[in-house]
Amino acid sequence: MEAQLKTQQEAISFDKLRKQQRIERIEAFINRMVRNKAALVGGLIVLFYIVIALFAPFLAPYDPFAIDLANKLQAPSLEHWMGTDDKGRDILSRILYGSRLSMGVGVVAVLFGAIFGVIMGMAAGYYGGWIDSVISRVLDIMLAFPGILLALAIISALGPSLFNVTVAVGVFSVPLFARIARGSTMEVRKLEYVDAIRSLGANDGTIIFLHILPNILSPLIVQGTLRLATAILSAAGLSFLGLGAQPPSPEWGAMLSNGRDFIFSAPYMAIFPGLTIALLVMGCNLFGDGLRDALDPRMKS
Amino acid sequence: MKAATKPLLEVKHLKQYFSMKKESPFQKKQYVKAVDDISFGVEEGTTLSIVGESGCGKSTTGRAILRLDDPTEGEIHFQGRDLAKLSRRELKDVRGDIQVIFQDPFASLNPRRTIRQMLNESMKIQDVLPKSDREGRMLELMTLVGLPPDSLERLPHEFSGGQRQRIGIARALSVNPKMIICDEAVSALDVSIQAQVLNLLKKLQKQFNMTYVFISHDLSVVRHISDRIMVMYLGKIVEIADKHSLFNKPSHPYTKALLSAIPVPDLDVARKEIEITGDVPSPINPPSGCRFHTRCPFATDHCRNIEPELRELDDGHLVGCHYAEKLSI
């Protein structure tokens, strides 16, 4: 009875200890991030965009779709901070709403690429042999296409829409994730703790997802944030070419494309969406670089 | 006397070849003969050490017994079952009975799992205990290997090398194995820590009648822990004998050379040293006849042409040399 009570008390103190350790680890991570000023700025930029995307309806002063031909092509003013476009729609409101589309496409495309890429890469790296050969050749073929060209080919096959742009950008992210996953898996697979768990009789699924995946996650997360920038840029680029978001939707690339016709008479129509894209891409890149430094386990003393 | 007890593990004609990458499609397929036809047995509750230079196939032998690599040929009998022939599913039942402790205490523990997760998982995979009893068992294991109970919540990087090796031992013990393969288990540790871990292994052997296959290149360590010693050279057994017999009466020139390389902390002891020169030949094209002839100071034409069989010199002392009797004076 007394012994049981004692183990219970011990269990409680273990819980406390574990929580404390987790907090310590998170604190150490945040410390490293804060020390890197560029990464912090990048992180804040990304956070800022996420807040905008979440609260767009509350922040936007006007309806992004409301056409007001009487007020078309107005220069930035107190009423319309970023001016109005050729149909009299408030550019600021459109950019705020557009953040949902552009970032949504980016995030979904990266997730798509990451999930398929990691599964393919880990299978290749873990099993090796002919499985590795087949997967690696497929990836080589995908890598041989310039990304945007592959995306163009996919969209011309599937037809222009924002969803197809997401798929296309996702597809050309697959080989990047797959290569990182493959290389890291091959490295971790050789380690003795994988042999140890194999000698206990664990099945391949357990070994791959519970033991190898957590140990190769850092480079994948870093690649994910860096890739997010490229994905957003590519998606905007495809929309700019008229292959993604179709006219009324306030996608940034489409807005930029629309503004191109008025570049001399109303430059603000192109400048603001352009700046918005540039700032987000820069934020993602800075944040990704900072993450890489902070997540590298070798930096831990 | 020896024949009465049936060995727990009996390896027969084990071969482990690894195929090489072909450089051109016309090249004949080449194999690295890491282990080439070896047979030996280990009795329950005893320790068999496998010694030899790096690349002699000692670790490969261990990995084959564990079925971490599938052996090319041969039989591995363990408690009446041939491990070499078991399917993956059948193998899972046996895996709990044979466990492994690795050399590198920094690579053998998953850096992202706490000790509790590690032990819990082992017991879950092998289903050794109902969930409710695992907590107590984990604390028991920590006491057994001499770690404080709050170690369970910690991650591997919070421990020193010796402590990590104890964790490795605890993980191996968690599934109640009958045999543990120690693959260079103390080689990465400081001498003082080595002694602690070796004594722990010995204590566990006494307590649980544990059987060890102890793979090492360090003869002083081997001397401390073994009952029987098996010397390997280039994928073959050159000598296998009881510890005292081997140390007192080494019969193979290679064994003699190995033993004379152990430092003796006494200046007055005159020693007959046998030096061997050169490197181990490639296991892709091993030398003809006796594999050791390229480096053996006593080699004759007979050695170069005819491979010596492993033969019994004394009771339980086997040696693979044509001239073993003549050399052991």
Number of helices of chain A: 11
- Compute the average pLDDT of chain B: 87
Main sheet summary of chain A:
none
Secondary structural class of chain B: alpha/beta
How much helicity do the residues of chain B have? Answer: 25-40%
Which two chains have the most extensive interface, and how many residues on each?
A-B, 26 and 39 residues
Write down the oligomeric state: heterodimer
> Which percent range describes the beta-strand content of chain A?
under 5%
What would the principal axes of the Cα set say about the shape of chain A?
A: globular
Architecture per CATH nomenclature, i.e. the level-2 architecture of chain A:
Orthogonal Bundle
The count of β-strands of chain A is: 0
Q: What are the secondary-structure elements of chain A, in order, as H or E?
A: HHHHHHHHHHH
| Helix/strand/pairing category of chain A | mainly alpha
Name of the CATH class of chain A? Mainly Alpha
3D structure, described in words:
The complex is a heterodimer of chains A (301) and B (329). Chain A is mostly helical and 301 residues long. Chain A has one domain (25-69, 79-299): Orthogonal Bundle (MetI-like fold). Chain A contains eleven helices and no strands. The two termini of chain A are 43 Å apart. Chain B is of the alpha/beta class and 329 residues long. Chain B has a domain at 9-97 and 177-246: P-loop containing nucleotide triphosphate hydrolases (Rossmann fold). Helix content of chain B is 32%, strand content 22%. In chain B, α3 (115-126) crosses α4. The radius of gyration of chain B is 21 Å and the shape is globular. Chain B starts with 8 loop residues before the first strand and ends with a helix. Chain A binds chain B through residues 7, 10-11, 13-14, 17-18, 21, 191-193, 195-202, 206, 210-211, 214-215, 297, 300, and chain B through 63, 66, 68, 91-93, 95-96, 98-100, 102-104, 107-114, 121-122, 125-126, 135-136, 139, 149-150, 152-155, 157, 168, 171, 175.
